[in-house]
Amino acid sequence: MKSTLRLAVILCVLWVLLSGHFTPLLLFLGVASVALVLWMDWRMDEIDHEQFYLPVTRDLFTHVVKLSWLVILSNIDVCLRIYGIRKASPTFMEIPLPFENPLSKVIFANAITLTPGTVSMVINDNTLLIHSVSKEGAEDLKNGAMVNIIPRIKDQYVKTVPVPASTPSYPPKKIKEKDVSL
């Protein structure tokens, strides 16, 4: 309940700061959006029972600044490839995942996807399949260009809650199909 209230307050403040308008329609849409996000958050907790606590530390702020800089550089690189100044050479490549923590792996994959010109495709135990618009970009990722910007996350911040026996199975059981042939 405490985390839901904290999330609601953060989302409401963020909505007001980003919107800057106080008309009844926009305030209603903001409340509706916050309610929808809170409902989705509750449903996700009901389904997967995992909680990740990402502490707000200097590492997190450093990650955001460095990732923002990489996004700017990648934007410039993609623009140069679009205008033909640099050659595009689309490449699929498997790169090693240097992290043991599943949350660190997900943050790493998301950081790669956030940078223009690269997409994380499949995450395995120790490798990540990526697509890049250039072979140079894929090689940079393979050589660890983005590893240093990922915040250090300790295992104590990842908590898996056991599923109670009374919880319904997900996904729901398939409903019997009826023969509807004519």
From TrEMBL:
UniProt KW keywords: Cell membrane, Membrane, Transmembrane, Transmembrane helix
Keyword Transferase recorded: no
InterPro entries: Cation_antiport_E (IPR002758)
Transmembrane segments: 7-40, 60-83
Compartments in which it is found: Cell membrane
Membrane topology type: Multi-pass membrane protein
Keyword tRNA-binding: no
Pfam family name, one: MNHE
Family as reported in the entry's similarity comment: Belongs to the CPA3 antiporters (TC 2.A.63) subunit E family.
PANTHER family: NA(+)/H(+) ANTIPORTER SUBUNIT E1, NA(+)_H(+) ANTIPORTER SUBUNIT E1
Name recorded for this polypeptide: Na+/H+ antiporter subunit E
Source organism: Salinimonas profundi
